Amino acid sequence: xxxxxxxxxxxxxxxxxxxxxxxxxxxxxxxxxxxxxxxxxxxxxxxxxxxxxxxxxxxxxxxxxxxxxxxxxxxxxxxxxxxxxxxxxxxxxxxxxxxxxxxxxxxxxxxxxxxxxxxxxxxxxxxxxxxxxxxxxxxxxxxxxxxxxxxxxxxxxxxxxxxxxxxxxxxxxxxxxxxxxxxxxxxxxxxxxxxxxxxxxxxxxxxxxxxxxxxxxxxxxxxxxxxxxxxxxxxxxxxxxxxxxxxxxxxxxxxxxxxxxxxxxxxxxxxxxxxxxxxxxxxxxxxxxxxxxxxxxxxxxxxxxxxxxxxxxxxxxxxxxxxxxxxxxxxxxxxxxxxxxxxxxxxxxxxxxxxxxxxxxxxxxxxxxxxxxxxxxxxxxxxxxxxxxxxxxxxxxxxxxxxxxxxxxxxxxxxxxxxxxxxxxxxxxxxxxxxxxxxxxxxxxxxxxxxxxxxxxxxxxxxxxx
Length: 466
What we know:
- There is one protein chain.
- This protein is α/β, with parallel strands linked by helices.
- 48% of the residues lie in helices and 15% in strands.
- The protein has 15 helices and 15 strands.
- Helix 7 (231-246) links the parallel strand 9 and strand 10 (251-257).
């Protein structure tokens, strides 16, 4: 039984989709005004893993991830660069799409854009006005009236009275209440604008997602996801306006990932403490970033450091090493060894499902996979043939693919590392021939400290990651 932590209720709940066998999942995508960083990658990878596991469990997943392609940040950035804001957004969308391919993220069922959903956005705003949940200010702005929503703050756990304390109405704003938020912003000189019943202008950020969601998935969805930095105000406001418009509960499960931290702070463009996806992929494989995320709870903050990257890379190599073929000269393993290997493959599959059913506990799932890698390596060392290892290796390959790990994509840097290790093995072999046992042991011990095990056999020395 799959259980998911629901931010709305602050507890794990049994997962029951609105329609049996079908999951409608909306995940907030990036605002495309600058190069995406690995904090953005973390969110898309988390929900890629969730989607992959739901599909492994037999669900058909309708997965929607939007692009916010008109926003204050895009306009400000375009003005600073002296470029067209639509051209800027389009360039970063195409760049991000390639990053998703590089990161082995499954394509979403749909990638709506705010600029292509304008009719639906305006229809939703008008509906909220007609119902008394929104009002048109005399300057052409349209605001949502938060005081009409009795449970405003139910997602974030904030009370309206507490939010109001310290809040203020900025100069030029025509709000009834300090916490009212913009649904439509009247046109300003030099900014993109669309015709509307309230005059030329553009939509606010929150209404864009609600309208795209409604357009692609309908009035109610199963999972709404995003980073936990979106809980307030973005997702809180989405709930308020969507439920006011439809009169129905919006999303059954609100799922939020933690932040990727660099130097103890959230990685963000505004703080400038970021590593872009492009920069990361020039130095590391996509599996390394995914493993960094898999090693922790998706709801917890993850520390990005050289130490955590090294641990992630070593973990990937352990899995990859377990998939290598047995030597052609393998004589075959004893019956009890093969029986133990088959039993471990079955136990691993059961433990994997049990862990993932517990709010996508990827760290627990990995622990089960490493139990299987040890069993595979033990069987190989005991002489198991390619055919004897294959069933357990297929189980390992299947389960790692559920987590989105490729394991077979080696970077050029990895190939150079292979060459360097092979050279050290060759030097050690010469030292052994010369009976220079001190040098031989030194090379073996130093490589072991780096996570590389040497195995001496009749036909020479082989190596693998520990």
